[in-house]
Amino acid sequence: MKNTLQRVLLGGLILSGIGFLFATYVLLTPSTYDAKGRVAGIDDGGRTLIVEHEEIPGYMTAMTMPLPADPSTTSSLQSSDAIEFELVVSSDSTWIGSVESLPDTAVARHPARATQPVPASTSTSDGPQPLREGDPVPADLTLVDQTGTPIQMEDFRGRALVLTFIYTSCPLPDYCPLMSKHFATLQPTLREKFGDQAHLLSISFDPATDTPSVLRDYAERYTGRLDTWTFVTGDRSQVNRATSLFQVYTKREGGQITHNLVTVVVAPDGTVRRIFRGNDWTPEDVVKTVETML
């Protein structure tokens, strides 16, 4: 009886171990998607391929986006070339795994052309001029937080403010989800060092979808405390004003949005202290900037 029990327990442990290893393998193994499109541009010495691609079934709608790539796979490509490529998506990054040229007739001339742009968020002669480091952030910029409460930028005066722009349905792990993960790392560090003298602000540029209740649910994925981290949306005019001020460019393509990344540190006096563009900044970079102010 004792030996039988031991065998049962051992078998259970082995099965549990196998299950754990399988789950770990699934989580760590990147997903791959086959896609077709056209080369819209090549940047950074061939390390970034801008692709206007068809719908990727099961992952994203047709859109234009920049993706990291191996220069050896892009060296022979030219703008408007028809291509087939492998999109690789891991838990924290996205890149092009392989690229093959296709006959010109294999892909529509503009596979994402049918999409419609988000109302303009770039500055014009009649709109707000982009802010630079040292410029004051308009105190009357008004948004709405995850509880539905209106807030203004002047509400954060007297504190260091770190703000970034997101939309909750962003599918690329190294875009909006990475910004939110960075903020999730920043929040306890800033709170430990500076208490409530440092605050995080995530601004959604998709107000049609990201209502206060949607933002509240989104916030729960990243934090259990909203005392030093606020998620905001607003009416289209105020959201466009915010994106224009910080040169956040957005374009709706199907159900998703092509956009750039901008993260800003605002000093307690309401002036812009530093602007990070892209996703290569780290939480440590922000902490060092806040330390110079507090």
Overview of the molecule:
28% of the residues lie in helices and 29% in strands. By secondary structure, it is α+β, with helices and mostly antiparallel strands. The strands form three sheets. The chain has a seven-stranded mixed β-sheet with strand order 7-6-10-9-8-13-14. Strands 3-2-1-4-5 form a five-stranded antiparallel β-sheet. Strand 4 (82-89) and strand 5 form a beta hairpin. The termini are far apart.
In sequence order, what are the helices and strands, one letter per element?
Answer: HEEEHEEEEEHEHEHEEEEH
**Largest sheet: number of strands, sense, barrel closure:** 7 strands, mixed
Strand content: 25-35%
Strand order of the biggest β-sheet: 7-6-10-9-8-13-14
Mean pLDDT: 86
Query: Which consecutive residue ranges, at least 5 long each, have pLDDT under 50?
Result: 20-27, 114-125
Q: Structural class per helix/strand content?
A: alpha+beta
Note the overall shape: elongated
Query: Residue share in helices?
Result: 25-40%
Question: Helix count?
Answer: 6
How many strand units? 14
N/C terminus separation: 68 Å
The Rg value, from CA coordinates, equals 23 Å
How would you summarize this macromolecular structure in one to three sentences?
The chain is an alpha+beta fold and about 290 residues long. The protein has helices at about 1-30, 70-75, 175-195, 210-220, 235-245, 285-294, and strands at about 30-45, 50-55, 65-70, 80-90, 95-100, 140-145, 150, 160-165, 200-205, 230-235, 250-255, 255-260, 260-265, 270-275. The strands form three sheets. The protein has a seven-stranded mixed β-sheet.
